[in-house]
C-alpha cells in the first residue's frame, strides 16, 4: 500500500521570550524558542495569536537562532513533531516545529 502524507510547516512570526541553547546528555545540541504568530479567525477587531515551540537541531538553524532575540521577526520552514518526555515520574508530550530553514526577516 502506498503511503500518503505530507508534513510541512511554514510560519512567519515574532520570537517571544528567551532563545535557549542546551547540550543534551547524548551530546547533541538543541536551540529552542517560542514563536508568536498572528491568527485570523474571522472575528473582526479581535487580535488572536498562536504561540508555537520551535526546535533547531541543525548547525545552520542553531546559528541563526543564536542571532535572534525577543521581538525578532523570523520565517520558519520545517515539520510538525510530537516530542515525548518524562518529568518527575510522569510522562508527557508536546508538539513543536522542527526547523529545517530559519530566516531573520526585515522589520525587527
TrEMBL record:
Pfam families: SSB (PF00436). The keyword DNA-binding applies. The keyword Mitochondrion does not apply. This is Single-strand DNA-binding protein. GO terms for molecular function: single-stranded DNA binding. Keywords: DNA-binding. It comes from the Bacteria. InterPro entries: NA-bd_OB-fold (IPR012340), Primosome_PriB/ssb (IPR000424). Coiled coil: none annotated.
Amino acid at each position: 500500500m502506498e503511503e500518503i502524507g505530507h508534513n510541512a510547516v511554514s510560519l512567519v512570526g515574532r520570537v517571544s521570550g528567551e532563545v535557549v541553547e542546551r547540550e543534551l546528555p547524548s551530546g547533541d545540541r538543541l536551540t529552542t524558542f517560542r514563536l508568536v504568530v498572528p491568527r485570523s479567525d474571522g472575528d473582526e477587531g479581535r487580535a488572536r495569536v498562536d504561540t508555537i515551540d520551535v526546535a533547531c537541531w541543525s548547525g545552520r538553524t542553531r546559528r541563526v537562532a543564536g542571532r535572534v532575540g525577543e521581538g525578532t521577526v523570523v520565517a520558519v520552514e520545517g515539520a510538525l513533531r510530537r516530542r515525548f518526555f518524562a518529568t518527575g515520574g510522569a510522562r508527557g508530550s508536546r508538539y513543536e516545529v522542527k526547523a529545517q530553514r530559519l530566516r531573520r526577516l526585515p522589520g525587527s
